[in-house]
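Reopening this one. Same input as before:
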Amino acid sequence: MTGKAAAIDRDLRARIEDSTYPVGGFLPSEHQLATSYGASRETVRRALQELTEDGWIQKITGRGSKVLERSHYVFPVTRLLGYKEFSLAEGLDLDNRVLAVEQTMLPVAAFAGLRDGGARLEPVPVTHVARLRVIDGEPVIIDHDYLVTALAPGITEQVAQDSLYDHLEGTLGLSLGYSVKEIRVVPADDEDCRLLGLDASDVVVTTTSITSLEDTADIQFTVSRHRADRFRFRDFARRRPEERRTR
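Same output, byte for byte:
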């Protein structure tokens, strides 16, 4: 979605976020929105459809578009989003503590489960970036990123401190396409206990992912280890018309 509809979509999201349109209330009518934005009703409908599909509103026949409750401070699992982008969007105080930036070979075994029946992974040269994520003063995530050196050169400690995605997309001009992720609950290891303040009897939630460019080339392999008491997984699922059974 581009142009006027996209602009309306962005503005409505901002107004929902700042409670101009509070949760449980209704957006103005399509006619009112069209007049307010100087757009056609069809353009407004496209913007509202995007909000509906993303779980911001529910259209109720005869009443209008109701604003739905959305979860905040939930780590992005179903989106391809950098933690810098996430923290800025959520208004969080994120401190990146770089633990390591080193050249090594891809630990294939850690990611083989994401390629069941797919192309075989090879132990290619990668830049390993290890970071501790401290959110609002509390250490909550350990990230281990492995970026294919041939595709993502120039990763320094400063790049790791700032944003890998800014470097990949801004500096290198790459186009990130999609990510495949797996979520597991596993016992805390020595590193988890030391950096996250856990006990040996605790567990962590791990998200293991492979991120690919738009041309399908694998570029980033990540293992994130989250404190289980600070991790929440929540998605919004909408049943599509073609999935509804006819009677």
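So the earlier flakiness isn't reproducible anymore. For the record, The mean pLDDT is 85.
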